[in-house]
Q: What sequence folds into this?
């Protein structure tokens, strides 16, 4: 009986073991194939694709055009170009620079044309393009019209330059011995001579020298612009013999031949047009800077206010620090500011 019971228990145990082994070997349904219940279904909202704005690269961009001519003073173009480029960028406009201008270059995108130089026929061009704003710099004889704004005035600018050239010459002279070459064949000759003398006297009064030669200063000598390549020596020698130490040479007389000869004579030079090459005796260049005036009226130009005539400011370029110290520069700048503000009259009262 006991043997039978043991056999029975072993048989049951063997059966249990076989059932466990069969359960372990049976294939399981992959989890990924299980169907989710209704409560497990996600209810996320559909995601709409992001819309990228389309930029029309062919859209018209307003353009500012700067034009120079063969006779443009490079120093004036140097002052205007970076300021105009910055004004255009700040206004969301494109900038372009050309060395000539014709009606074909005025595209529908052209909004402002700034012409720098005396040999550009802007009035005729402006008459054919009334929708374009024109700004004229350094063109004697051009007057403001409905779409032309003029920066500077030839007579006023020359008078101010000559006055400050005389002031600067006296300022850097050791004994008030200053002089000027004056163009004898120019309408501006008398203006240059008078303004230069008044500018020197504004600084030194009677300008009496302390050391010989005891001549009257300031002095001037007339020279034809046709003689700036030859025949100028007589005028320069007369000033040198009188004891002139600092000489003002207006731009139309400042040929390389004249400048070379004056350099040989050991005289210091003040000019109103930058020389083509550096000279050790060149003290500085008294310039009318139209860039500040352009900045001041820029928004008016863009809003349609044209037909103006405004004055440029006066600046000193090409400064020789060995001849014009920081203190003398400060005096020059203060006098220039007073002149621009109308506190100084650079001409004789009638």
A:
């Amino acid at each position: 009986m006991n043997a039978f019971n043991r056999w029975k228990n072993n048989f049951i145990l063997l059966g249990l073991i076989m059932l466990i082994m069969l359960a372990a070997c049976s294939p399981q349904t992959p989890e990924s194939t299980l169907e989710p219940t209704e409560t497990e279904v996600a209810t996320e909202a559909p995601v709409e694709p992001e819309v990228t704005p389309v930029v029309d690269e062919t859209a018209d961009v307003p353009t500012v055009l700067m034009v120079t001519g063969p006779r443009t003073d490079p120093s004036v173009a140097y002052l205007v170009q970076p300021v105009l480029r910055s004004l255009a960028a700040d206004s969301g406009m494109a900038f372009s620079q050309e060395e000539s201008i014709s009606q074909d270059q005025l595209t529908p995108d052209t909004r402002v044309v700034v012409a720098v130089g005396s040999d550009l026929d802007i009035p005729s061009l402006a008459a054919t393009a009334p929708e374009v704003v024109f700004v004229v710099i350094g063109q004697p004889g051009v007057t403001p019209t409905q779409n032309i704004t003029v920066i500077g005035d030839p007579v006023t600018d020359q008078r101010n330059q000559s006055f400050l050239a005389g002031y600067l010459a006296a300022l850097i002279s050791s004994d008030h011995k200053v002089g000027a070459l004056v163009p004898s064949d120019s309408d501006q000759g008398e203006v240059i001579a008078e303004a230069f003398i008044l500018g020197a006297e504004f600084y030194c009064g009677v300008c009496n020298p302390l050391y010989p030669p005891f001549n009257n200063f300031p002095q001037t000598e007339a020279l034809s612009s046709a003689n700036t390549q030859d025949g100028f020596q007589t005028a320069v020698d007369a000033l040198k013999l009188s004891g002139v130490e600092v000489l003002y040479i207006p731009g139309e007389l400042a040929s390389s031949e004249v400048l070379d000869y004056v350099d040989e004579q050991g005289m210091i030079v003040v000019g109103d047009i930058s020389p083509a090459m550096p000279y050790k005796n060149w003290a500085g260049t008294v310039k009318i800077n139209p860039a500040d005036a352009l900045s001041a009226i820029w928004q008016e130009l863009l809003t349609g206010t044209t037909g103006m005539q405004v004055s440029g400011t006066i600046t000193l370029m090409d400064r020789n620090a060995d001849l014009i110290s920081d203190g003398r520069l400060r005096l020059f700048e203060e006098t220039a500011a007073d002149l621009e503000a109308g506190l100084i009259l650079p001409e004789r009262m009638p």
Summary: Confidence is low (pLDDT under 50) at residues 29-49, 51-58. Residues 112 and 348 are 39 Å apart (CA to CA). The longest strand covers residues 282-289.
